[in-house]
Amino acid sequence: MFAFSPFFPENTQTNLFLHRFLGYDTGIGGAVSALPSFRRDFGISPSNAPSTISNIVSILFGGAWFGALIFALLSHYIGRRKGLMVATVIFTVGAITQTACKGNLGQMYAGRFITGLGIGAVAEISPTFTAECSSPKWRGRAVAMVEMNLVAGGLLSYWITYATSLHIPPSSSSQWRIPIAIQLIFGGIAFFCTLPMNESPRWLISKGKDSAGLASLAYLRCTNLDDPALLNEFAEIKAQVKEEIEVAKGVTFRELMLPYNRKRLFISTFLGLWGIWTAHTALVVYAPTIFQQIGFSQATTSLLASGVFATLKFVVTIIAIALTVDRFGRVVSMCVGLISTGTIFFSLAAIQATHPPRAEGNISAASKAMMALIYLHVIIYSFTMGPMPWIYSSEIFPLRLREIGQMAFSVGTCESLRFRFHLLNSYRS
């Protein structure tokens, strides 16, 4: 299924594919909740729609928080590959639970939570696995491509839901069940792709399995065991692992609170929070509802606008990764992104307050202006706060604290997702 490449080996490509289904599931909850068939089958009325839809969306991130926390520890002991295999099984069980729903909101909530466990595990393990399997020259770009594949998954979720809204009548449950069931395809492909994967060479070496680590590295680089370049890279990895083990002896989470590490911990943890508090994730998962609220009242129209939003994000993310991710400073890029997105949302609120959308009739100029601002936001975000936090957080910790520092970033991100959507749930209800 995947091309053998020393630049982006099949391990890396599989990890990126895993983020594609992660992005799909993040977007699908908000997408199908806009369908009339879904609202009819689950008894969602205008009065309870805000709280019910918020529950359907937010409970995924509650599961993701637990999944990230559990697998941050588990993958250290059982390995990256086995951790991802377990994660895909959990994800598939959750997808089956959702697909089999017959109007039971409790079952849908349970399925979303179980799926969230698998998503949190993938979000925790996959970026590390990707970095450990990529060649040094391409490592930064491979990690940045995690964001691109998240976007690609969200892109699919909206366009598939838009297609079912056009070609399947609202009287049929298949209109919402098909987009949900496609998660099973992602989960099945992902599981079978993890079976032939090699374990991370760095993880194997860290566990004293040097021979297996060398063989895995040779496989990933598509070369022979006696290749001088391969042996040099192996020696470098082994020396780095040895140094990390030596400097990390006795390391504890308490050490992160020492004065010279506290700043790094704060930055790493709150980068995840700041990325979420740009409200970009809310736009992604609630896009159809948000476009309805700014004047695109028809479900089909709002899904079309959401599909354009996801497509624009995907294209701009590719451009950012290819051309700009390594050209500008990390801090400057993130500051520009935060200030710009804040200004955009202030403008959105001002237009919404002074020129509320029309209840009926043609789409107003104010609604079109708000749509343009949302699209401008996604362009700026994709160049700045989309890829930069992932890269920056992996660069600021010393070797001794790098692993638990990355854990702080991942858990902080999932915690911010959970908190953000519980906050939205309370506000919207």
TrEMBL record:
**Main site of residence?**
membrane
Which Pfam families did the record assign?
A: Sugar_tr
Q: How does it sit in the membrane?
A: Multi-pass membrane protein
Q: Which UniProt keywords apply?
A: Membrane, Transmembrane, Transmembrane helix, Transport
The record's section on InterPro entries has: MFS_dom, MFS_sugar_transport-like, MFS_Sugar_Transporters, MFS_trans_sf, Sugar/inositol_transpt, Sugar_transporter_CS
Q: Where in the numbering of this chain does the Major facilitator superfamily (MFS) profile domain appear?
A: 11-429
Q: Name one GO molecular function term.
A: carbohydrate:proton symporter activity
Q: Which Gene3D superfamilies match?
A: MFS general substrate transporter like domains
GO CC annotation terms, alphabetical = membrane
The record's subcellular location field reads: Membrane
> Which reaction does this chain catalyze?
myo-inositol(out) + H(+)(out) = myo-inositol(in) + H(+)(in)
PANTHER family associated with the record? MAJOR FACILITATOR SUPERFAMILY (MFS) PROFILE DOMAIN-CONTAINING PROTEIN (PTHR48022:SF23), PLASTIDIC GLUCOSE TRANSPORTER 4 (PTHR48022)
Query: To which protein family does this belong?
Result: Belongs to the major facilitator superfamily. Sugar transporter (TC 2.A.1.1) family.
The name on file for this protein is: General substrate transporter
